[in-house]
Amino acid sequence: MPVAWTRKDLLGLEDLSKEEIELLLATAESFKEVSTREIKKVPALRGKTVVNLFYEPSTRTRVSFEIAAKRLSADVINIATETSSVRKGETLIDTGKNIEALKVDIIVVRHNYSGAAAMLGRHVKASVINAGDGWHEHPTQALLDIFTLKEKLGRIAGLNVSIVGDIAHSRVARSNIWGLTKLGAKVIVCAPQMLIPLAIEQMGVEVTSDIDEALSNADAVNVLRMQFERDEENAFPKQLEYFKDFGITQERLEQAKKDIIVMHPGPLNRGVEIASDVADGANSVILEQVTNGIAVRMAALFLVAQANENISHDNID
Amino acid sequence: MGEKAKLFDKDALNRIIMRIAHEILEKNKGTQGLCLIGIRNRGAYLAKRLRESIETIDKATVPVGVLDITLYRDDLTLIAQQPLVHKTEIDFDITDKNLVLVDDVLYTGRTVRAALDALIDLGRPKCIQLAVLIDRGHRELPIRADYVGKNVPTAQKEAVEVRLAEVDGVDEVVIVEKD
Q1: Global pTM value
Q2: Mind listing the pLDDT tens digit for each residue in A256-293?
Q3: Best A40, A106, A308, A309 residue to mutate vs chain B (most B CBs within 10 Å)
Q4: Is A42 on the interface with B (CB under 8 A)?
Q5: Which of A25, A92, A98, B165, CA to CA, is 20 to 30 A from A177?
């Protein structure tokens, strides 16, 4: 595994090698202990400044990044674009350049356009971490899902993981597919036909619209949130209909492996994609995912900050 | 890097560890409240060997913790080769304990400075003592060891390599010349 992290930015799992993903996970494992201390802080990023630049509403991801940065002793500024000059028409690059002029070291960005984080990364010397760009990627969410899975089952290679829900509009699904397949897991995606993107098989996954088939041999199921706010094409089934056909219920779990791990990136729509008793039940690791998110984001912040000290910035526009 | 001189072989190393174990017990008047903290990587193995020696002498087991100081280094931004962050594994409360910090080579003192900061973030020990296998001089901070295997005057362009069977497959201490 001893591979060095040399990337200024963390944009997605598609670009990463298996070894880089493993390094992120191993680093996160070392950071997990920090949050169990009475003084939950280490001085690794003392003097560094992190800006959370969020163009979409987010509570858990932003708070998780903020806590991660603070546990590394960095200073954190949050910018929610609804209340910023973005409302006056400033472009992403101009906003990025202005943040950079404030001598910021890391920008954590969430944006509704796919590729926004990568574009920002090309224009600023600061490190950029993608906290979700459109339907494209959400790397730290997938890393924390994989970290939790590995913690629970001891490995990733050879596992059967089913991802259920709106695959078409899900950056969480895409990042999970890249990460899991690189590490040797077998991935099945399951959704209503309308919510399965064309040519998804080329990512190395199996596709089904039969929830019982998706669950039958799964070691873990990652239940995606139905993002009704994104349903511009009116492609979504109605909530009750979706629950009937795809909802993860205790009855369905009884047909699956006894120790199947149930994950969900949150926020939960209880009674839509997941039944309440499953979300709170023995197979659920949903709150552990939240805890592990801090360690994973600490690792991401630490590695990009370190790498950025040692690279040239000649190719920054 | 050329090997210049061999300082200790396996037997000499064992005798030194046994002597330091005796000194620790003498100074602390037994094992009451005593804990060993090894600094990753080789200090952790030395701490475990010291525990065995203490067990042989005193028939008592002392807790051993492992400290990773990467996050507390003052040169994180200066070194090109990024160090891997490893786990700190101290599963006991260090408050009011007599801690013996264990490392292989004492040189500039910066590692020990980082370790002291790391420990104090974990609690308030009654005291912290320092045990090292080799003190090679060239201190850059006001730090000294309580227990020293051997004082070895060295030149800056030399390095002292402690090799332990657990990691290196062999027990020996050598001086090497840096290129």
Answers
A1: 0.90
A2: 999 999 999 999 999 999 999 999 999 999 999 999 99
A3: A309
A4: yes
A5: A92
